[in-house]
């Protein structure tokens, strides 16, 4: 179920068993259903989750343990795993949060899925998600369901939307502590963001955050390198699939990535066209475990979990972004379980995170990393896919194009849960 992840500070195997990606691959929504990988995220081998299943790890061990230890009180604090790292998905950063907040967040995920089934087919609805409120307890914000209507939605259409979960025709869980439904008008239609203000190139190891492109001459697409990931056989460059692939393809033979100085960075070895991620494998040279930007660089140490993302919702300037057009920016997580679709091939149906900035994201930022910096390190959240198109365009550094806010991306915890890729 989507609403899972670790219920407190638990063992690695129990937590991994509980963070399964949901079956969004078969869900019909207002966006056309697109064929996706039948199982998991990747074309490669067995996933981390399947290996754990074969080893006999039980999905219900945690619930039994917590009851025996007496941690079932609704008002008691609990501890969540906020970040993980490595091929064993080891817990790294944990946070103490109110148990009633955690139970509410799980409930709001379930409610959001039910609202999506009821409303996302409406032609005037762009996305159903959940988003942070201004209600905070124990250092974390409660979230509420949110329906985003398209820019041209009429007043009558907006008035037809339910104001609360109770009158939305879906079950109201007892754990739900904020039952109002927020309605927002989108800033513009969805658009992908694949033109460079920062041209420094490092040959090997090649870091994230720099310009990448699909060819050395003639017409080419360009975007931003994400970050290094690895499995038990090789290192890869992780970025947005639509930056390197055209015509809704993924992992096509002879598809390659190049640095701005035409250095060959490798071929697209794996990915998912609908969730808009891919990995590039290099036969000569390597990738650096850093994200580089004009003023400095940072090293990544792992990734943020689903509960970790929820604990950061609404916290001003908690996250960072690097894109070759927009540069280095601070931002805020604005929601999760959102849908983003370009009506062609990218279709994150209820699985995207939503990110906001004081400024904008811009075309050319696609594939660039978002991360959470804290005292223990830097933790990957997603890479940039697209945004709601804003008014006007940007111009500078020899390029011009669309800009927009908020931005969207597919969270890496979902990818890592269903593949053998990792960051450490």
UniProtKB/TrEMBL annotation:
Region (Disordered): 1-50
UniProt feature, compositional bias: Basic and acidic residues: 1-15
Protein name per UniProt: Serine protease
